[in-house]
Amino acid sequence: MTKKKTFVLRINPEMLDAVEKWAADDFRSINGQLEWIISNALKNSKRLKINDVQNNSEPE
């Protein structure tokens, strides 16, 4: 199992509500949804290789 780091995230309530609703639509936790969003952004900007994400992903 891959070790994950924790950190504090400050986010405005409206943005958190939107992420929470999106996560529910995708049957994910808020944390899982944020990881998915960040992962996609990194892949799309070519800052993270697709294999790196697949090797470090864990089922929820």
Q: Can you walk through the features of this model?
A:
The protein is mostly helical and 60 residues long. The protein has helices at 13-25, 30-44, 50-56. Helix 1 crosses helix 2. The radius of gyration is 12 Å and the shape is globular. The protein starts with 12 loop residues before the first helix and ends with a helix.
The largest sheet is: none
Radius of gyration: 12 Å
Helix content percent band: 55-70%
* Number of strand segments: 0
Distance between the termini: 12 Å
Ranges with pLDDT <50 over ≥5 residues? none
Task: Please state the average pLDDT score.
Answer: 88
Structural class: mainly alpha
% residues in beta strands: under 5%
Compressed to H and E, one letter per element, the order equals HHH
How many distinct helices?
3
Q: Work out the count of structural domains.
A: 1
Quaternary state reads: single chain
Rough shape?
globular
